[in-house]
Amino acid sequence: ARLLGVEPATLVGQRWRDRLRPEDIAADDRALRDLAEGGMPSPYPAWCRHTDGRWIPLLIIRQRSADGAYAVVLDLTVQRQAEAAALDQAARQAALISALPEALIEVRDGAITAVNPAATALLGPAVLGREVRALLGQAATDGAGPYRVRLGDRQLAVSTLALPDGGDACLMLLRDETVG
User: Fold this and answer.
1) Is the pLDDT of residue 11 over 80?
2) What is d(CA 148, CA 52) in angstroms, rounded to the nearest whole number?
3) Taking the CB of residue 58, how many other CB atoms lie within 10 A of it?
4) Planar angle of CA 56, 79, 53, nearest 5 degrees
5) Are the CB atoms for 88 and 100 separated by under 8 Å?
6) Tell me, what DSSP letter sits at residue 53?
7) What is the pTM for the complete model shown?
8) C-alpha to C-alpha distances, 80 to 58, 77, 84, 86, nearest whole angstrom
């Protein structure tokens, strides 16, 4: 009742489904049918209308009991807000990385797996999947750095940062120091 913004007594005689979005009623019906047939329904997401009119994201878990059935209803509002914040953070990070004037490449197991636009401009469009050692030399895979390397007529300063997810993964920042 607190989740919906009402007093518990006001819910007596009301149907749960009347508070669900129309597209969520089929999942609720399926869960009730599974219970009636002796099965165990899977938890399902749904949206329920609060008394103030907003929709609340929920996870509903239907269970059988000695005298019928009940539902465990989990409010997913905070989780959804956290997911939205994480997506927003990821978008800001992507925008920052894209705006870097220096080339930034991600390397996993010796191969280039991601690049920013500056890296594409410096290294060419077909850089994904290439072995970093073949492109930047032995020092690129030795964990050395910062170091300098020639790439064609370019002089690059290369700095390497190991990624925290372990394994053979790193970010490499390539700064073009070519004079003239």
Assistant:
1) no
2) 62
3) 20
4) 15
5) no
6) S
7) 0.55
8) 10, 5, 6, 10
